[in-house]
Amino acid sequence: MTAPTRARLSPDERRSQLLDLGVRLLATRSLDELSIDLLAEEAGISRGLLYHYFGNKHAFHEAVVRRAADDLIAQTAPPAGGDALGRLLASVTAYVDYVLANYEGYVSLIKGAAGGNETLRQIYDEARSALSERIFTEQNLLGNAQGELVEDTPRNRLLVRGWSAMTEELVVAWGRDPAGVSRQEVLDIIAGSLPALVGVASPAPA
Amino acid sequence: MTAPTRARLSPDERRSQLLDLGVRLLATRSLDELSIDLLAEEAGISRGLLYHYFGNKHAFHEAVVRRAADDLIAQTAPPAGGDALGRLLASVTAYVDYVLANYEGYVSLIKGAAGGNETLRQIYDEARSALSERIFTEQNLLGNAQGELVEDTPRNRLLVRGWSAMTEELVVAWGRDPAGVSRQEVLDIIAGSLPALVGVASPAPA
Question: Residues of B with CB below 8 A from A91's CB?
Fold first, then answer.
């Protein structure tokens, strides 16, 4: 049951390398289009070996999506220094670039997570939580020495949740059809809207 | 092939009455739980008669969801008079109340539409468009005599799209777990956030 290895990679390194390839393939494909066959062909190895590494197609998809979510979280880490809005804009920029570079796979993840695939939903929720949590944790996006923009209250937790949904919708819709709106406008809208939302004054009752 | 009718309703009236019952049953159930059997039992008529009216389960679900979407659009119509923010708040209040009163069915519609059911997605998109279009059409929500708050530009179209996604996320998340946030706070956030978003100034580059 030992699988042949290529080069001098350990099984873990080899598996990791195959996951990276899976993530790259997913960038321009839906999950449905990402098959073990395709990965085998692109990696130049046998289907049998891939089953050895991943067990089955479902487990393979789960592993690829987890890797993609980890990549997203890593790539959108805000810079350590700078003012709060600048750090937020940097993180938002990385998020938008990530979604655009991995559009098909990202959209298929949203679809799978929303449509009732429990594994995808869990990975999706974990990634969303990780991104949102940055707004509130001690080493947070908006709580540096320049002052906290978002106080950790139930109201603001709800707001950040709504802002995340809006951000995703904006990027996915704009990625499909920019309709003359520039990338910079999208970035400014997303980054600028969080403090704007937090600062929303209660309108007078009708 | 003529079906027996009850009372003195025409077939169209009878079908409409059955759709209303379907919408009421859907309020506290997912679409998966809304069966022809259940409708037959609640309506006190035969399955055969229901198949006569609706053809099959898929067509029945489609008709119920279309009716529910029409109800949503009708119930959230803004009042004819008043200032722009007051009209927006009234419409948003009706939307929140509708979602809360029809929570299970509404969430299952989102799930079905997002998950790849083409019929549900189409009805969902049409309803969303109808709600959003109000912001921009001549007799619109924010463009009455008191002055237009939302100019019809590609940027603002994208913003309203994002605002709609945020609104839905806020209501669905809050409906599941209010976490101490009051209904009035939710309403104020949603109504107040649209003008706040439209007015978002471009932040300085990082």
Answer: none
List the structure tokens of A142: 């908006």
**CB nearest to B206's CB, from A89, A166, A193:** A89
| pLDDT one-digit tens code per residue, B65-112 | 999 999 999 999 998 888 888 888 999 999 999 999 999 999 999 998
Sign of the dihedral through C-alpha A102, A108, A114, A120: negative
Note whether A206 contacts B155, CB cutoff 8 Å. Answer: no
Per-residue pLDDT reduced to its tens digit, B39-50: 999 999 999 999
d(CA B183, CA A158): 12
Nearest to B191 among A166, A186, A203 (CB): A203
Is there a contact between B189 and A111 if contact means CB atoms under 8 Å apart?
Answer: no
Of A104, A117, A126, A124, the residue nearest A57 (C-alpha): A117
Distance from CA of A6 to the nearest CA of B (A): 39
Q: Is the ipTM of this complex over 0.90?
A: no
- Between residues A144 and A142, the one the model is more confident about: A142
Kindly report each contact of residues B167-171 with a partner whose C-beta sits within 8 Å and lies 24 or more positions away, as own/partner: B167/A162, B167/B92, B167/B95, B168/A165, B168/B99, B168/B110, B169/A161, B169/A162, B169/A164, B169/A165, B169/A166, B170/A158, B170/A159, B170/A161, B170/A162, B171/B95, B171/B96, B171/B99, B171/B100
Q: Which helix (H) or strand (E) segment is A102 a member of?
A: none
CB contact under 8 A, B155 and A185: yes
DSSP single-letter state for residue A32: G
